[in-house]
Amino acid sequence: MNDILTTAKSWLTDFFDPAVKKEIQHLIENDPEELKDRFYKNMEFGTGGMRGIMGVGTNRINKYTLGKSTQGLSNYLHRVYPDAELKVVIAYDCRHNSDTLARTVAEVFSANNIKVYLFSDLRTTPELSFAVRYLDCQAGVVLTASHNPPEYNGYKVYWTDGGQIVPPQDGEIIAEINRLSVEDVRFKAKDDFIELIDKQVDEAFINASVKNGDFNAPGKEDFSIVFTSLHGTSITAIPEVLSRAGYSKVTIIAEQAEPDGNFPTVVSPNPEEPEALTLAMKKAEEIGADMVVGTDPDSDRLGIAVRNLQGKMELLNGNQTMVLMTKFLLDQQKKKGMKGNEFIASTIVSTPMMQSLASAYDVECKTSLTGFKWIAKMIVDHPDQHFVGGGEESFGFMVGDFVRDKDAVTSTLLACEIGATAKANGKSFYQELIQCYADYGLYKERLISLTKKGISGAEEIREMMQDFKENPVKSLDGSKVITVDDYNTSTSTDIKTGKVSAIDLPKSNVLIYTTEDGTRMAARPSGTEPKIKFYFSVNSTLEQTNAYNEGNKALEDKLDRIVSELKLD
């Protein structure tokens, strides 16, 4: 506690704002536990940036922690590009303080003689990714905490290619930041280096989104969509993109259309949570809509609900939408003619069905660690190959490579193209998905996410992962484990033979068990939230589409048994 107190008192110097000093003094005198939580560690700049609770202290998102990261990034840019005219672009979302924090970040860059393009108002994360290359910048930053609760904010860094930073840049930037103290930050802005941007980049991004996501689907005028931005940034782009692509029957949920960092109408602004789409689903039932689309605050994730076989709106999961979107893109590519260098992409915790799909189309499916930065890296690493599309289970998808991150804007348009085409052909989005299961195998996934907050929670998550390593799972629902993949040691172990082979991916704290019948379980701590996540995948064959309900129920029961067996229910 003495070290924590010393660190806290170091924020009482004249370098810090009076309000900051007053709050810290209050905590020192009145709330030692809160003081401990705010100063027991530094807010870490991880492999993609920072995300955490806003407030005063070294373990919080604030002017000083973001300033230090920006100073480190500025130093790194000058070192890597010593003779270049340095340029960065900055965007921010609807969260509290995002606009003022974005301005602070811009001022620090400008104080380091770096040209800054700062969006004049909130914009989507995919537009920021697009803008990095469109404006020929060396880097980009977006102020967002994605779908985290209202008290959070964050800082994501993008590199020259428009993708989030990856090795070796991430480690080198972290080292640069860690060499600094807060007092090293240059906060005094040079206003001539800051330029506000908006309509020109908006227009370029919207045109690119329509170009990449519009496939001239028939029946657009008859396809009814309910859209909600969940108080976030997508309201700045998705309605216009849908309009330009020819969709006129778009109903926007007015109560959620106004950007608001309190997210007042939802428990969590996360389209993965059915509750978040309650208002949109209700409206869809009222007007008989074909599809519901909801996006998270920075518009990189999207949730889609469509009418199931009983005619009721059903929220699909990220694996389901990813498979159908990818199949549609592959069909479009096939019409143009395959060149033999195409690839699709997914992640190690997403559905294995993507591999089955790739095999059927005779294209490669590259698999990465969790996070779209790795998919963006594939595009850079393989310039001789053509990226068609791909995604991950956590409701993210990327259409082509003009954006190098999850893109809910273009993916929304793509989903509507699939739905409109199906409807015009007398089918539905849901029926097309079931046809995929008949063609490529019936797969079903489930995510169990356990929240463990604070210092004790972090330790509990560490102990749970350690226990899985020291006491590995032997079987799942009676099927023996045959392979254990430990990404922390980059090793894959064949349980039958004992043979250990290398995994050619960067190290990551992930364990994956695969059984004889193809059942799979993955365990990993979240990199952005105080959670440990368990991903399950089971599969069977589907001989006929009319047997879907029975087959789906059997897999649902199997997942129930596995979760109960592992005491995660």
Automatic annotation (TrEMBL):
CDD domains: PGM2
Entry's family note: Belongs to the phosphohexose mutase family.
InterPro entries: A-D-PHexomutase_a/b/a-I, A-D-PHexomutase_a/b/a-I/II/III, A-D-PHexomutase_a/b/a-II, A-D-PHexomutase_a/b/a-III, A-D-PHexomutase_C_sf, A-D-PHexomutase_CS, Alpha-D-phosphohexomutase_SF
UniProt keywords, alphabetically: Isomerase, Magnesium, Metal-binding, Phosphoprotein
Organism: Muriicola soli
PROSITE patterns referenced in this protein's UniProt entry, alphabetically: PGM_PMM (PS00710)
Lineage of source species: Bacteria, Pseudomonadati, Bacteroidota, Flavobacteriia, Flavobacteriales
Location of the Alpha-D-phosphohexomutase alpha/beta/alpha domain: 43-179, 204-305, 317-436
Cofactor(s) annotated in UniProt: Mg(2+)
Entry's Gene Ontology BP terms: carbohydrate metabolic process; purine ribonucleoside salvage
Protein name, as recorded: Phospho-sugar mutase
GO MF annotation: an example: magnesium ion binding
Record-linked Pfam families: PGM_PMM_I (PF02878), PGM_PMM_II (PF02879), PGM_PMM_III (PF02880)
